[in-house]
Amino acid sequence: xxxxxxxxxxxxxxxxxxxxxxxxxxxxxxxxxxxxxxxxxxxxxxxxxxxxxxxxxxxxxxxxxxxxxxxxxxxxxxxxxxxxxxxxxxxxxxxxxxxxxxxxxxxxxxxxxxxxxxxxxxxxxxxxxxxxxxxxxxxxxxxxxxxxxxxxxxxxxxxxxxxxxxxxxxxxxxxxxxxxxxxxxxxxxxxxxxxxxxxxxxxxxxxxxxxxxxxxxxxxxxxxxxxxxxxxxxxxxxxxxxxxxxxxxxxxxxxxxxxxxxxxxxxxxxxxxxxxxxxxxxxxxxxxxxxxxxxxxxxxxxxxxxxxxxxxxxxxxxxxxxxxxxxxxxxxxxxxxxxxxxxxxxxxxxxxxxxxxxxxxxxxxxxxxxxxxxxxxxxxxxxxxxxxxxxxxxxxxxxxxxxxxxxxxxxxxxxxxxxxxxxxxxxxxxxxxxxxxxxxxxxxxxxxxxxxxxxxxxxxxxxxxxxxxxxxxxxxxxxxxxxxxxxxxxxxxxxxxxxxxxxxxxxxxxxxxxxxxxxxxxxxxxxxxxxxxxxxxxxxxxxxxxxxxxxxxxxxxxxxxxxxxxxxxxxxxxxxxxxxxxxxxxxxxxxxxxxxxxxxxxxxxxxxxxxxxxxxxxxxxxxxxxxxxxxxxxxxxxxxxxxxxxxxxxxxxxxxxxxxxxxxxxxxxxxxxxxxxxxxxxxxxxxxxxxxxxxxxxxxxxxxxxxxxxxxxxxxxxxxxxxxxxxxxxxxxxxxxxxxxxxxxxxxxxxxxxxxxxxxxxxxxxxxxxxxxxxxxxxxxx
Length: 782
What we know:
14 strands; Rossmann fold; Growth Hormone, Chain: A; alpha/beta; 4-stranded antiparallel β-sheet
């Protein structure tokens, strides 16, 4: 094999890892876009991705000796993978029709719906991932017949995956979007396969020689060791994915979770695996001993346990930062060493099975298949059984205990060069160190972090986030992943219900997306409505609200709680509503920006009844001016009759309709005066003086900032936001909270309250409304 051809082959293996990670990231986002971003939807993609690879590794590993030119088969697989990637998004869109039929037939929150999601995603993802699973066994069969270079090949493939993670997660998705990225990497994979086929035809050095069946020295494993070999390989994959899920949860306790968090954590993991594989290759004679493999498991277990159970003050430097650089440093400190140990295990495990009389490709195929099957089990069991039943702390102990057990088993039953007493002593010392760590720590996850700096009243480990009830400065508040969601006492959030209802007092059927502490949704029940559907991705919220936040309103027969991604209800639900209220804050959180896209607004419009309106909570402090203008332009594109209103703490309300002008009319004023509950509750104002109390219609009118023409003027050149290109999600992850940046914009361009007053002669109340509006503009964005 010439040096040039060898470099080309290694480049192709790097590229294979690169495209594979791009596929995974794109498919996770695409499935979330169509089926929602619930924990089940995301875990389903990850599990199916690994399941397809496990099946492919097993099948092609077993068949690898049949082919005289394994590289030719490898090239055909790359072409097939690229084709599958390019077709995946249109096929996923096509196959969502049966899902919509089931959803509208009333199968929400039912196992039938969950299985349908799994089946539909599997039909798209399994075929290309099945082919992906065969690439490394085939490549190894040609390139590495003796198994000496496996650590290097695995490291190179992992480095390609890290490059794919970095480039796709930071550049391709925000610049090109999901569909264009899938098209690009699909063409890259096809080009790789076609180039290799060309070389196989014209380059005599590329003709493969069938790998010989090579006998290796017998390590004289006893029967117990032989029986434990593949369970150890399975357990390795299980622990790797279980750690990844636990790390993701832990990161939300010490830093704010953004779109960069997942990408950076995955990048650090892949870099650690690559470093471990390279280390195994560079020091192969010393590390091929089973003691090295046992040490990798034991150190992995102890380091993960130590880093997560350090005193909370040890992570103070993280500072709940949203900065990608800080997230990178946190992930390096938390994940790199365990990932390096994981990288060591793969080539060292391969050494354990080298005595088997199989070709190199078949051994790699078996190792990959069993290890990847363990990854599938780790993803599903940890996410859906261990964490919900045991909680984060106990799950950490189970996973690290299992990893420690793997190391002890390898030491006791695979290491034949040391006396039993030495192996037993190492096992006892390792177990004692693990027991010492768990018995002496003062940290309990997640309580110790949720209570940091405040009094923790209660908490729930939800399926997607930590829900905590805390007391600070005398206020009882609710937090999700330590981010403020609302308080027990009456606050400005109630206006997200009162204002749209007074603009559209005839509304009967209401949909609320994101219920928070229940302030806004409960206020809709003050009005004469017939139905209130409350949608939130966290199924545990109702029990928290009923226990701590006067959540008895959830028992009202008009109320239905739907534990689902709000986008799914807007996309597939068959009911129409007079009013849709979208109350999703902390825009930098993953998938939150999807509620500000053209696709979501179009779906919401389809769910509006005649003359229906939509109200969206707009946390402007999390936007910069360009991002806010894009949100406004996207909203106007679907709801041309739109208005912008001031709310407390620089939090605005964007209220629009596809077919009716919005104004404060006599019907709304009549409700304000005659509905005693509404009038009494609005007996407050943002400055706190009686002149500003919101139960006066002229004060309510003063909250008006802009009408459709002014909104269109300030946003005319802004790009539209779409699910396919998540620029808002990436942009807000880098934007610091600063509502004062909008003071100049709103003080220079705003509309008089005159245009919104349709209940009396505007001139009679205009001076007061104008004076209060000026107060909001002057003091509301500081």
